[in-house]
Specification:
Blueprint (H helix, E strand, L loop, with lengths): L1 H8 L2 H21 L1 H5 L11 H17 L5 H29 L4 H19 L8 H20 L13 H24 L3 H9 L1
Helix pairs in contact: 2-4, 4-5, 5-6, 5-7, 5-8, 7-8
């Protein structure tokens, strides 16, 4: 089963389909952030659209994988931010459902799509070539992003959750740490070795 999965993940047609999905998902994400970006100071623009930037990193990774090339820092940014913002968006939308008793069809779509984001980044762990030094840079990036979001007020707009902002900020900080150290643990774990052999075959 594992062998079949990783054989599928490296198939060119599968990579192209995944690339197309992530490409258009990235575009949709930036459009979703459009109203907020219009009000965002220029110096913060890079750090506001969290999820679409994460999927952009993964899209770049897929392009490079199809070209048999590697960009370790982008790989590290992709897997960590996909997991972090995938889980974050799922939790926020579930929290909206719990607190308001209602969630729009778009909200359910966001739960599904962001859960898929988190999973797809981890599925490609045997394909990544980044090292610990790259994860250190990603840790700085993610914590800096949290600082921009919750100190300067650039976080995504969920008006019904405004009263929970301090708790969300605390959760997000720890989610950043957990995301980086989870990826570090999985990359160091010896079970990744046989999976990499499957990838090379």
């Amino acid at each position: 089963m594992i062998t079949y999965l990783y054989t599928l993940l490296k198939q060119r047609i599968f990579l192209i389909v995944l690339l197309v999905i992530n490409f258009f998902g990235t575009i949709y994400g930036y459009i979703w952030y459009g109203p907020q970006l219009e009000q965002t100071p220029a110096r913060f623009l890079l750090f506001v659209p969290d999820s679409p930037t994460a999927s952009l990193f993964f899209t770049i990774f897929l392009v490079l994988l199809l070209l048999n090339k590697s960009w370790p820092l982008v790989e590290a940014l992709a897997v960590v931010t996909l997991f972090k913002y995938g889980i974050w968006a799922v939790v926020m939308n579930v929290l909206m459902l719990v607190t308001t008793g209602y969630l729009s069809p778009a909200g359910y779509m966001l739960i599904f799509s962001h859960a898929a984001m988190a999973v797809q980044g981890l599925l490609y762990l045997p394909f990544y070539r980044f090292k610990t030094k790259h994860l250190i840079i990603v840790l700085i990036w993610t914590l800096h992003n949290d600082f921009i979001d919750y100190v300067y007020g650039m976080m995504p707009s969920y008006r019904s959750l405004t009263d929970y902002t301090p708790a969300i900020a605390y959760f997000t900080f720890w989610l950043s740490l957990v995301s980086v150290f989870l990826v570090y643990y999985l990359m160091q774990h010896k079970k990744i070795a046989p999976l990499r052999q499957i990838v090379r075959e």
